[in-house]
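LOG
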Amino acid sequence: MENFEEYMQSEGAYPNLIDIGILHYQIETIHPFVDGNGRVGRLLIVLLLMASDILLHPLFYLSSYIRRNRDEYTDRLLAVSEEGEWNEWLLFFLTGIKEQANEAFSRAKLLLYLREQYQEKYIDARPSVKALLEKIFTEPVFTVNRASEMIDMSYPAANQAISILEDDGVLRERTQKERYREFQADEVLDALNKDADEIPSPEALIEEEENRLEDITQ
């Protein structure tokens, strides 16, 4: 662990993404904790990407790629330990970085499109509704009290905004209770939770955006 820590805090011997792949392998091989080594190793990837200025915000996770390729993931790690197959492991790791970066880009694009649609639809809405529409993209599940805090307005104003968006189908009450009701933005959650194979590719989204802009200019 001391050697691992020293290398992690050094400039490393290779390009940043290669070093991160090496460090992830090392922490999983050292396996220093009784429980949670996988979670720590995946979190370490995000922290190292941010420390290397590759990632500005913690909005990238390799977990879904690893989950989809669980058997190959464990086989690649074991092959490094037993056969020294570093190239194969690093290729697998870098492929995952690329796939998840594309997925994150596409999810962000879907959310931006949805946000633009809401802004156009509610351009003349009351300020509380506009404010809440902005906040549901960072916190898509909330109570009325929490909504009041999110938009920095009174409880009645937040409650009225929720009622308007609930009537329009933007929000849905999910607790079926009279008190401590929780609401969720289904379309936002759908964009966040879509399976990877259901998300349009970055190329398709870029082409769609170019076509939309062309239509507007014409």
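LOG (cont.) second protein
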Amino acid sequence: MQLLYFAWVRERIGMGGEEVSPPEAVETVADLVAWLSSRSDGHAAAFAKPARLRAAVDQAFVPLDTRIAGAREIAIFPPVTGG
């Protein structure tokens, strides 16, 4: 699946996205975030406080407990504010 990172998540990880194949035990966005946090120090820094993150699965905003089976694209980003 394709992952996209935005704002400070992208800055801490050091890239705008990556292609991953998570293990079968990764069933939700929250599981994915926990698994990703072990990939590098940047990932660990970006995902240290999962409650501060928002996500979209296949371009639809979702809560972190959303299942990811069959997802092609997941975006992870901080809360968005208007301006």
